[in-house]
Amino acid sequence: MTFETVYADAPAPDGPALFPTMSTMRAMRRLKPDAVPDETIEQLIQAAVWGPSGGNMQCYEYVVVTDRAVMAELAPLWKRCVDAYLATTGKHAPEGMDEAAYGRMVAAIEYQRDHFAETPALIIPCYKFPEPRFDEEGLGIYAESLGPAGLEHMTNTQTRFQALAEGSCVYPGVQNVLLAARALGLAANLTIWHLMLEQEWKKALGIPSDTHTFAAIPVGWPQGNFGPVRRRPVADVVHRDRW
């Protein structure tokens, strides 16, 4: 497996500008400390709200942190999570990524860790899946439709199914945040490292115990320039009709 650089050509006058936006939407971790206007942050959350949500339940909430005192309180938690990641999963470059490129990525991660208190804005997407409503007739059809093997599988994977159900409702909005940030010239990157200390993050931010968090997205004006992303070639990831 190797990565390729995807270059974004200027869109045709009647073509979608979205494609060049996506092809230059790199994770940008080196942020200027300059504040992001409230109206701009509201544009990001509006983009998130436009994202699809499973069953159109729209049970998402977004915690937006811009207060420097709160960010300083979160900075030690961020450092602990990043250090834990870099000592384990993040210790080695992914297959197909050269060590020099990975070293530059780690340097950016460490920079963000060391300057986290200066982050202009942090967005925490949250979701609380509503309690399901069943009746006897519906459960009968459910059991008949799945069959014994399907029922056993659902019983054994209920936790994963619940997590994916929630994630499918919130991550489309998260992707919209990233796209909107890029379109507005803002740097942003999606992280889930905070989940290693989620209870402490939730306590610091007053997030209810029965509400799950799905990401921590630092947002700000980039120090560097946007550029083409490096991704696996399409031909290497497509399985047509069957695996």
Walk me through this protein's architecture.
- GO terms for molecular function: oxidoreductase activity.
- This is Nitroreductase family protein.
- It comes from Streptomyces sp. gb1(2016).
- InterPro entries: Nitroreductase, Nitroreductase-like, Nitroreductase/BluB.
- It is a single chain.
- By secondary structure, the protein is an alpha+beta fold.
- It has a domain of 164 residues: NADH Oxidase.
- It is 45% helix and 11% strand.
- The protein contains 7 helices and 7 strands.
- The strands form 2 sheets. Strands 2, 3, 4, 5 and 6 form a 5-stranded antiparallel beta sheet that branches. Strands 1-7 form a two-stranded antiparallel ribbon.
- Helix 2 crosses helix 6.
- The two termini are 17 Å apart.
- About 3% of the residues have low confidence.
